[in-house]
Design goal:
It catalyses: a (2R,3S,4S)-leucoanthocyanidin + NADP(+) = a (2R,3R)-dihydroflavonol + NADPH + H(+); (2S)-flavan-4-ol + NADP(+) = (2S)-flavanone + NADPH + H(+). The protein is an alpha/beta fold and about 400 residues long. The protein has 13 helices and 19 strands. It has two domains: about 80 residues, no CATH class; about 220 residues, Rossmann fold, CATH 3.40.50. The longest helix has 22 residues. Bound molecules: NADP nicotinamide-adenine-dinucleotide phosphate (NAP). The site of NADP nicotinamide-adenine-dinucleotide phosphate has 26 residues, from helix 2 and strand 13.
Length: about 400
């Protein structure tokens, strides 16, 4: 049953007592409300949310009712916490940024989205089709390396999500292709933020790449947390150019924010997977596509993984929660590639998944990443297996898989 009803306390109370009376599962859609979830004062009703899925439209709130022994799932209200606020998202065409834009629009924000190629439908169509885009999404052209290019997009914004940065693992000229746009681009965007007096907080998409790459030993017992920093010299030695670009960019961002007294938060996700909104294939989703498309071997590496919906949510929570500060590592699980392949094999046995490791060395050890700080943003991670499934289904839908 699906009914649309205006949200008032009296309506909610009557819905719950109706549910009690009929002992039946019902789905109710309540739109346009500023509350996250129901607040009911009744001794025999416990209410959620146990798990909130802010990116999947209306949020879900579990209500369990003791006396009636009925168990109901009520789909409730979109969180409209952004109504009346304007924010900028840089690199909005990209995988993570598109998911941030989608969620911001769902929450009622007006979004000024910077893209490199506003006239290329492959880079913008998916954004223009989002719910709320017609009314509240505005595209701005900006390149990271063009001084002042972000001024117009950032001017008048309450907050900025700086996500634009190249993510490639094989490049011919690391300085030009990765380090310059990441480092100079970040300072360029922060420069525009410091000129705009309206900006209250900047949320920078950094990476676990800027956290975990140093000479400290990693074992399954080691817990990496926000106090860790990657070492640029170590990155250069290992020729980890993308990792270096993120490390230098975050370092420079903190220095800039401190000098200018800017309220900045960084989000440091591990490898991000989950549904793609854009029509092009990004690097982290490509790592799954390659395994599904007949790669002969899997890498001898252990990596952290996290769902893009949790990453998008964490960005917005980091903007909205006044006490949010510093860095936030985002990792649901750390697994060796062999384990990732086993999950894929279980879910998709007919695909030509690799059987062997790329080398005969001992398997790279796993490690842990602390979830404590992310909890304060209200993040309850989507499990890895579900994230993998969502990624593959999305890759299939967008024709990125050969089978
Ligand atoms: N995906 C992950 O696993 C992961 C994990 C941790 C952190 N991150 C970080 O998340 C951010 C987004 O990554 P993503 O995975 O969403 O990758 P993506 O889809 O490739 O997005 C990168 C974005 O940066 C933009 N960009 C690159 N160079 C630019 C330039 N010179 N001027 C303006 N924009 C430029 C791209 O614009 P075009 O669309 O025009 O190319 C694109 O919108 C990056 O900062 C990345 O380091 C990603």
């Amino acid at each position: 049953m699906r009914r649309k009803v205006p949200l008032t306390q009296a309506t909610i109370t009557s819905i719950v007592f109706y549910l009690l009376a009929i002992r039946f599962s019902v789905v109710i859609t309540i739109g346009q409300c500023r509350h996250h979830y129901l607040h009911l004062n009744s001794d025999n009703i416990r209410f959620g949310p146990r798990r909130v899925h802010p990116t999947s439209g209306p949020q879900q709130v579990d209500i369990s009712i003791d006396e009636g022994q009925a168990y109901v799932l009520v789909v409730v209200l979109e969180k409209m916490s952004g109504a009346g606020k304007t924010v900028c998202v840089t690199g909005a065409s990209g995988y993570i940024a598109s998911n941030i834009v989608k969620l911001l629009l769902q929450r009622g924000y007006a979004v000024k989205a910077s893209v490199r190629y506003p006239n290329n439908p492959a880079k913008t169509d998916h954004l223009l089709k989002l719910d709320g885009a017609k009314e509240r999404l505005h595209l701005f052209k900006a390149d990271l390396l063009e001084e002042g290019a972000f001024d117009a997009a950032i001017d008048g914004c309450d907050g900025v999500f700086h996500t634009a940065s190249p993510f490639f693992t094989s490049v011919a000229d690391p300085e030009k292709e990765l380090i310059e746009p990441a480092l100079k681009g970040t300072l360029n965007v922060l420069g525009s933020c410091s000129k705009a007096s309206s900006v209250k907080r900047v949320v920078v998409t950094s990476s676990l790449a800027a956290v975990a790459f140093n000479a400290r030993p990693k074992t399954p017992e080691v817990v990496i947390d926000e106090t860790w920093f990657s070492d640029p010299e170590f990155c250069k030695e290992m020729k980890l150019w993308y990792v270096l670009s993120k490390t230098l960019a975050e370092e420079a961002a903190w220095k800039f924010a401190e000098e200018k007294g800017m309220d900045m938060v960084t989000i440091n996700p591990a490898m991000v997977i989950g549904p793609l909104l854009q029509s092009t294939l990004n690097t982290s989703a490509e790592s799954i596509a390659n395994l599904m498309n007949g790669a002969e071997t899997y890498a001898n590496s252990s990596l952290g993984w996290v769902n893009v919906k949790d990453v998008a949510n964490a960005h917005i929570q980091a903007f909205e929660i006044p006490s949010a500060n510093g860095r936030y590592c985002l990792v649901e699980s750390v697994v060796h590639s062999s384990e990732l392949v086993e999950i894929l094999r279980k879910l998709y046995p007919s695909y030509p998944l690799p059987q062997k490791c790329a080398d005969d060395k001992p398997l790279a050890t796993t490690f842990q990443v602390s979830k404590e700080k992310a909890k304060s943003l209200g993040i309850e991670y989507i499990p890895l297996e579900q994230s993998i499934k969502e990624t593959v289904e999305s890759l299939k839908e967008k024709n990125f898989l050969n089978l």
